[in-house]
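Here we describe the complex-level prediction in full. Unlike the single-chain runs in Section 2.1, the two entities below were treated as one system.
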Amino acid sequence: MSDPSRSLPFLLRATGLAALVGLGAGAAPWEDAALAARIGLILLLAAPWLVVVWSAATDPGDAVWRRPLSIVLLLAASALVLVTLWTGRD
Amino acid sequence: MAGLVAGMVGAALGIGGGVILVPILHLGFGFALADAVGTSLLVIVGTSIAGAAGYLDRDLVMLDVALELQVGSMLGAVAAALAAPLLPERVVAAVFAAAMVAAALTLWLRRGGEGGFFLPEEGARRWTARLLAPAGGAAAGLLGIGGGLVQVPILRLILGLEMRRSVATSTLMVGWTASVAGWIYLQRGAAAPEALPWVLAGILLGAALAPGLTVWMPRRLLELGFSAAALYGAYRMVLG
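The structure predicted for the assembly as a whole is:
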Protein backbone atom coordinates (compact mmCIF):
# COMPACT_ATOMS: atom_id res chain seq x y z
CA MET A 1 0.00 0.00 0.00
CA SER A 2 1.38 3.43 -0.90
CA ASP A 3 2.23 6.01 1.77
CA PRO A 4 -0.64 8.54 1.80
CA SER A 5 1.74 11.44 2.55
CA ARG A 6 3.37 10.83 -0.89
CA SER A 7 0.07 11.71 -2.57
CA LEU A 8 -0.21 15.10 -0.88
CA PRO A 9 2.31 17.03 -3.04
CA PHE A 10 0.59 15.65 -6.16
CA LEU A 11 -2.83 16.67 -4.85
CA LEU A 12 -1.50 20.13 -3.99
CA ARG A 13 0.03 20.62 -7.45
CA ALA A 14 -3.11 19.33 -9.19
CA THR A 15 -5.33 21.71 -7.20
CA GLY A 16 -2.97 24.63 -7.86
CA LEU A 17 -2.95 23.86 -11.57
CA ALA A 18 -6.75 23.55 -11.65
CA ALA A 19 -6.97 26.94 -9.88
CA LEU A 20 -4.65 28.51 -12.46
CA VAL A 21 -6.71 27.03 -15.31
CA GLY A 22 -9.91 28.34 -13.71
CA LEU A 23 -8.44 31.82 -13.24
CA GLY A 24 -7.13 31.79 -16.80
CA ALA A 25 -10.54 30.76 -18.14
CA GLY A 26 -12.06 33.49 -15.99
CA ALA A 27 -9.90 36.10 -17.69
CA ALA A 28 -10.97 34.97 -21.18
CA PRO A 29 -13.93 36.61 -22.95
CA TRP A 30 -16.68 33.94 -22.82
CA GLU A 31 -20.08 33.63 -21.18
CA ASP A 32 -19.06 31.50 -18.18
CA ALA A 33 -15.93 33.50 -17.37
CA ALA A 34 -17.28 34.70 -14.00
CA LEU A 35 -18.09 31.15 -12.89
CA ALA A 36 -14.66 29.88 -14.00
CA ALA A 37 -12.94 32.73 -12.11
CA ARG A 38 -14.95 31.97 -8.97
CA ILE A 39 -14.07 28.28 -9.11
CA GLY A 40 -10.42 29.20 -9.72
CA LEU A 41 -10.37 31.51 -6.69
CA ILE A 42 -12.06 28.96 -4.43
CA LEU A 43 -9.52 26.30 -5.46
CA LEU A 44 -6.65 28.75 -4.95
CA LEU A 45 -7.77 29.79 -1.45
CA ALA A 46 -8.64 26.23 -0.41
CA ALA A 47 -5.49 24.52 -1.74
CA PRO A 48 -3.09 25.40 1.13
CA TRP A 49 -5.61 23.99 3.62
CA LEU A 50 -5.54 20.61 1.87
CA VAL A 51 -2.36 19.95 3.83
CA VAL A 52 -4.23 20.35 7.13
CA VAL A 53 -7.25 18.34 6.02
CA TRP A 54 -5.09 15.61 4.47
CA SER A 55 -2.95 15.32 7.57
CA ALA A 56 -5.99 15.12 9.86
CA ALA A 57 -7.67 12.56 7.60
CA THR A 58 -4.71 10.27 7.00
CA ASP A 59 -3.08 10.38 10.42
CA PRO A 60 -5.66 11.38 13.03
CA GLY A 61 -3.69 9.70 15.82
CA ASP A 62 -0.65 11.89 15.16
CA ALA A 63 0.54 14.06 18.06
CA VAL A 64 -0.33 17.18 16.04
CA TRP A 65 -4.01 16.28 16.22
CA ARG A 66 -4.06 15.87 19.97
CA ARG A 67 -3.66 19.64 20.32
CA PRO A 68 -6.81 21.74 20.63
CA LEU A 69 -5.18 24.53 18.59
CA SER A 70 -4.93 22.23 15.58
CA ILE A 71 -8.63 21.50 15.76
CA VAL A 72 -9.40 25.23 16.05
CA LEU A 73 -7.28 25.86 12.98
CA LEU A 74 -9.02 23.14 10.99
CA LEU A 75 -12.44 24.52 11.95
CA ALA A 76 -11.34 28.06 11.03
CA ALA A 77 -10.09 26.84 7.66
CA SER A 78 -13.29 24.94 6.99
CA ALA A 79 -15.32 28.04 7.87
CA LEU A 80 -13.19 30.13 5.49
CA VAL A 81 -13.77 27.73 2.60
CA LEU A 82 -17.51 27.48 3.30
CA VAL A 83 -17.93 31.27 3.56
CA THR A 84 -15.95 31.70 0.34
CA LEU A 85 -18.18 29.16 -1.40
CA TRP A 86 -21.25 30.95 -0.08
CA THR A 87 -20.32 34.57 -0.72
CA GLY A 88 -17.68 34.32 -3.49
CA ARG A 89 -17.37 37.46 -5.60
CA ASP A 90 -17.97 37.39 -9.35
CA MET B 1 6.07 41.24 -16.67
CA ALA B 2 5.70 42.25 -13.00
CA GLY B 3 5.32 38.58 -12.05
CA LEU B 4 8.28 37.54 -14.19
CA VAL B 5 10.60 40.07 -12.53
CA ALA B 6 9.32 39.28 -9.01
CA GLY B 7 9.60 35.52 -9.57
CA MET B 8 13.06 35.67 -11.11
CA VAL B 9 14.68 38.08 -8.65
CA GLY B 10 12.83 36.62 -5.63
CA ALA B 11 13.88 33.05 -6.38
CA ALA B 12 17.45 34.02 -7.32
CA LEU B 13 17.96 35.92 -4.06
CA GLY B 14 15.77 33.80 -1.79
CA ILE B 15 13.41 36.62 -0.83
CA GLY B 16 9.63 36.64 -1.03
CA GLY B 17 7.95 37.88 -4.21
CA GLY B 18 5.60 40.26 -2.38
CA VAL B 19 8.29 42.73 -1.42
CA ILE B 20 9.08 43.09 -5.14
CA LEU B 21 5.59 42.62 -6.59
CA VAL B 22 3.70 45.19 -4.49
CA PRO B 23 5.98 48.15 -5.44
CA ILE B 24 5.96 47.11 -9.12
CA LEU B 25 2.14 46.91 -9.19
CA HIS B 26 1.74 50.12 -7.17
CA LEU B 27 4.50 52.34 -8.59
CA GLY B 28 4.87 50.78 -12.03
CA PHE B 29 1.34 49.74 -12.98
CA GLY B 30 -0.66 52.36 -11.07
CA PHE B 31 -2.52 49.94 -8.77
CA ALA B 32 -3.87 51.53 -5.56
CA LEU B 33 -1.66 50.30 -2.72
CA ALA B 34 -4.51 48.23 -1.19
CA ASP B 35 -5.18 46.59 -4.58
CA ALA B 36 -1.49 45.81 -5.00
CA VAL B 37 -1.37 44.26 -1.51
CA GLY B 38 -4.55 42.21 -2.10
CA THR B 39 -3.34 40.96 -5.47
CA SER B 40 0.08 40.13 -4.01
CA LEU B 41 -1.55 38.05 -1.25
CA LEU B 42 -3.47 35.97 -3.80
CA VAL B 43 -0.27 35.50 -5.81
CA ILE B 44 1.58 34.44 -2.64
CA VAL B 45 -1.03 31.69 -2.12
CA GLY B 46 -0.17 30.35 -5.59
CA THR B 47 3.58 30.46 -5.07
CA SER B 48 3.17 28.87 -1.64
CA ILE B 49 1.27 25.95 -3.17
CA ALA B 50 4.02 25.37 -5.74
CA GLY B 51 6.82 25.74 -3.18
CA ALA B 52 5.17 23.72 -0.41
CA ALA B 53 4.49 20.79 -2.77
CA GLY B 54 8.22 20.57 -3.51
CA TYR B 55 9.20 20.83 0.16
CA LEU B 56 6.60 18.21 1.18
CA ASP B 57 8.10 15.91 -1.46
CA ARG B 58 11.42 16.23 0.34
CA ASP B 59 9.95 15.92 3.87
CA LEU B 60 11.27 19.32 4.90
CA VAL B 61 8.02 20.79 6.25
CA MET B 62 7.59 20.68 10.05
CA LEU B 63 3.80 20.43 10.15
CA ASP B 64 3.58 20.37 13.95
CA VAL B 65 5.59 23.59 14.26
CA ALA B 66 3.64 25.24 11.43
CA LEU B 67 0.28 24.42 13.06
CA GLU B 68 1.49 25.57 16.45
CA LEU B 69 2.44 29.02 15.15
CA GLN B 70 -0.32 29.35 12.60
CA VAL B 71 -3.16 30.32 14.94
CA GLY B 72 -1.21 33.41 16.09
CA SER B 73 -0.09 34.15 12.56
CA MET B 74 -3.68 33.98 11.27
CA LEU B 75 -4.95 36.23 14.05
CA GLY B 76 -2.24 38.78 13.18
CA ALA B 77 -3.12 38.58 9.49
CA VAL B 78 -6.86 38.99 10.07
CA ALA B 79 -6.35 41.92 12.46
CA ALA B 80 -3.96 43.68 10.05
CA ALA B 81 -6.14 43.04 6.98
CA LEU B 82 -9.19 44.43 8.80
CA ALA B 83 -7.23 47.42 10.16
CA ALA B 84 -5.54 48.26 6.83
CA PRO B 85 -8.40 50.36 5.37
CA LEU B 86 -8.54 52.40 8.59
CA LEU B 87 -4.93 53.50 8.15
CA PRO B 88 -3.96 56.34 5.79
CA GLU B 89 -2.29 55.00 2.63
CA ARG B 90 0.83 57.05 3.43
CA VAL B 91 1.26 55.19 6.73
CA VAL B 92 0.98 51.79 5.01
CA ALA B 93 3.38 53.01 2.32
CA ALA B 94 5.88 54.14 4.97
CA VAL B 95 5.71 50.77 6.76
CA PHE B 96 6.15 49.03 3.41
CA ALA B 97 9.18 51.22 2.67
CA ALA B 98 10.68 50.13 6.00
CA ALA B 99 10.06 46.48 5.04
CA MET B 100 11.84 47.04 1.70
CA VAL B 101 14.86 48.52 3.46
CA ALA B 102 14.79 45.58 5.91
CA ALA B 103 14.70 43.12 2.98
CA ALA B 104 17.75 44.81 1.42
CA LEU B 105 19.59 44.80 4.77
CA THR B 106 18.71 41.14 5.37
CA LEU B 107 20.51 40.21 2.15
CA TRP B 108 23.73 41.76 3.46
CA LEU B 109 23.35 40.48 7.02
CA ARG B 110 22.90 36.92 5.70
CA ARG B 111 26.39 37.12 4.25
CA GLY B 112 27.69 37.03 7.82
CA GLY B 113 26.94 33.30 8.06
CA GLU B 114 24.60 31.05 9.99
CA GLY B 115 24.77 32.61 13.45
CA GLY B 116 21.64 32.79 15.53
CA PHE B 117 20.02 33.86 18.75
CA PHE B 118 19.03 30.69 20.55
CA LEU B 119 17.22 30.80 23.87
CA PRO B 120 18.60 28.03 26.02
CA GLU B 121 15.31 26.63 27.25
CA GLU B 122 12.86 24.81 24.96
CA GLY B 123 9.74 26.21 26.68
CA ALA B 124 11.02 29.82 26.46
CA ARG B 125 11.77 29.35 22.75
CA ARG B 126 8.31 28.02 21.99
CA TRP B 127 6.55 30.80 23.88
CA THR B 128 8.72 33.49 22.28
CA ALA B 129 7.92 32.04 18.85
CA ARG B 130 4.19 31.89 19.65
CA LEU B 131 4.21 35.51 20.83
CA LEU B 132 6.07 36.71 17.72
CA ALA B 133 4.02 34.68 15.21
CA PRO B 134 1.23 37.31 14.93
CA ALA B 135 3.85 39.80 13.66
CA GLY B 136 4.47 37.56 10.64
CA GLY B 137 0.75 37.39 9.98
CA ALA B 138 0.40 41.14 10.42
CA ALA B 139 3.17 41.75 7.86
CA ALA B 140 1.19 39.66 5.37
CA GLY B 141 -2.17 41.22 6.22
CA LEU B 142 -0.96 44.82 6.06
CA LEU B 143 1.78 44.71 3.43
CA GLY B 144 1.04 41.69 1.23
CA ILE B 145 4.48 40.20 1.77
CA GLY B 146 5.34 36.60 2.55
CA GLY B 147 7.08 35.13 5.54
CA GLY B 148 10.71 35.57 4.61
CA LEU B 149 11.17 38.69 6.66
CA VAL B 150 9.48 37.52 9.87
CA GLN B 151 8.54 33.82 9.90
CA VAL B 152 11.88 32.46 8.70
CA PRO B 153 13.83 34.36 11.41
CA ILE B 154 11.35 33.11 14.06
CA LEU B 155 11.77 29.50 12.92
CA ARG B 156 15.51 29.75 12.37
CA LEU B 157 16.71 32.07 15.12
CA ILE B 158 14.17 31.51 17.90
CA LEU B 159 13.23 27.84 17.43
CA GLY B 160 16.62 26.86 16.02
CA LEU B 161 15.33 24.89 12.99
CA GLU B 162 17.73 24.23 10.13
CA MET B 163 17.59 26.97 7.48
CA ARG B 164 16.06 24.73 4.78
CA ARG B 165 13.41 23.45 7.20
CA SER B 166 12.67 27.04 8.28
CA VAL B 167 12.17 28.12 4.67
CA ALA B 168 10.04 25.03 3.87
CA THR B 169 7.81 25.43 6.95
CA SER B 170 7.47 29.17 6.36
CA THR B 171 6.49 28.55 2.72
CA LEU B 172 3.52 26.44 3.83
CA MET B 173 2.52 28.84 6.63
CA VAL B 174 2.59 31.81 4.27
CA GLY B 175 0.03 30.09 2.02
CA TRP B 176 -2.38 29.66 4.94
CA THR B 177 -1.89 33.22 6.15
CA ALA B 178 -2.12 34.79 2.69
CA SER B 179 -5.27 32.83 1.84
CA VAL B 180 -7.05 34.28 4.88
CA ALA B 181 -5.80 37.86 4.42
CA GLY B 182 -6.26 37.66 0.63
CA TRP B 183 -9.85 36.54 1.12
CA ILE B 184 -10.53 39.64 3.29
CA TYR B 185 -9.05 41.94 0.60
CA LEU B 186 -11.03 40.10 -2.06
CA GLN B 187 -14.32 40.53 -0.19
CA ARG B 188 -13.52 44.24 0.10
CA GLY B 189 -12.90 44.46 -3.65
CA ALA B 190 -9.26 45.41 -3.01
CA ALA B 191 -7.60 42.86 -5.27
CA ALA B 192 -7.44 42.27 -9.00
CA PRO B 193 -8.24 38.57 -9.57
CA GLU B 194 -8.34 39.18 -13.34
CA ALA B 195 -4.60 39.96 -13.23
CA LEU B 196 -3.85 36.78 -11.25
CA PRO B 197 -3.32 34.19 -14.02
CA TRP B 198 -0.78 36.41 -15.78
CA VAL B 199 1.08 37.47 -12.65
CA LEU B 200 1.10 33.89 -11.30
CA ALA B 201 2.27 32.45 -14.60
CA GLY B 202 4.98 35.14 -14.73
CA ILE B 203 6.13 34.37 -11.17
CA LEU B 204 6.30 30.61 -11.79
CA LEU B 205 8.16 31.16 -15.08
CA GLY B 206 10.48 33.65 -13.40
CA ALA B 207 11.24 31.20 -10.56
CA ALA B 208 12.03 28.51 -13.16
CA LEU B 209 14.37 30.89 -15.02
CA ALA B 210 16.09 32.13 -11.83
CA PRO B 211 18.88 29.49 -11.79
CA GLY B 212 19.85 30.64 -15.30
CA LEU B 213 19.93 34.25 -14.13
CA THR B 214 22.34 33.39 -11.33
CA VAL B 215 24.64 31.66 -13.84
CA TRP B 216 25.22 34.68 -16.08
CA MET B 217 24.84 37.40 -13.45
CA PRO B 218 27.06 37.30 -10.34
CA ARG B 219 25.05 37.03 -7.12
CA ARG B 220 26.80 40.09 -5.71
CA LEU B 221 25.63 42.17 -8.67
CA LEU B 222 22.06 40.88 -8.21
CA GLU B 223 22.15 41.79 -4.52
CA LEU B 224 23.49 45.26 -5.32
CA GLY B 225 20.85 45.76 -7.99
CA PHE B 226 18.05 44.62 -5.69
CA SER B 227 19.30 46.76 -2.80
CA ALA B 228 19.49 49.86 -5.02
CA ALA B 229 16.01 49.16 -6.44
CA ALA B 230 14.61 48.52 -2.94
CA LEU B 231 16.03 51.79 -1.60
CA TYR B 232 14.70 53.70 -4.62
CA GLY B 233 11.31 51.94 -4.25
CA ALA B 234 11.24 52.82 -0.54
CA TYR B 235 11.99 56.46 -1.41
CA ARG B 236 9.19 56.51 -4.01
CA MET B 237 6.79 54.81 -1.60
CA VAL B 238 7.32 57.49 1.02
CA LEU B 239 7.59 60.55 -1.19
CA GLY B 240 5.29 59.43 -4.03
